[in-house]
Amino acid sequence: MNTEAETGAENGIEQISEQETEESKVKKDWYVVHTYAGYEKRVKTNLERRVDSMDMKNKIFRILVPTEKEITSRGGQKRTVEKKVFPGYVLVEMVMDDDSWYVVRNTPGVTGFVGPGSKPVPLSEKEITHILRSVGVVERKPRIEFDINQVVRVVSVPFKNFEGK
Questions:
Q1: Could you give the 3-state DSSP secondary structure of residue 154?
Q2: Using CA atoms, how far apart are residues 93 and 43, in angstroms rounded to an integer?
Q3: Which ranges of the chain does DSSP label H, i.e. alpha helix?
Q4: pTM exceeds 0.70, yes or no
Q5: CA distances from 113 to 31, 105, 131, 163 (A)
């Protein structure tokens, strides 16, 4: 025979385990957020602050402004400049629900999510993997296609044009 307290405790345990399984079923995806031109870094900073202040760390995980380094030449001097890969856009890894949508959508500088109408569409796994690799977030594995004792020519300084095995 179970008393009411024991039954309640058992139900409480069952409810917690159901919540845990629901959380593990929730899938986080990458979404593209449209911003005002030139506001990408400011939106990232504002959104990170809102995530902290509104306690959304369990629903909004990473915020990324994809950049790549570009070498420019001005006045005969070479400079390395970070260039935005997708100007006007920020990538957000999040669990999409009403609360997380509200936090992101009402961040200053955000004009909306990318998708048809008002429904955000997540990036595919293939798309996000390609983007993260191209901006250096996910490391690429170097491909070495040399055979042992194959003669190679060095193409960069300091041993430029030297040959070796």
A1: coil
A2: 14
A3: 4-25, 40-53, 98-105, 125-134
A4: no
A5: 7, 7, 18, 53
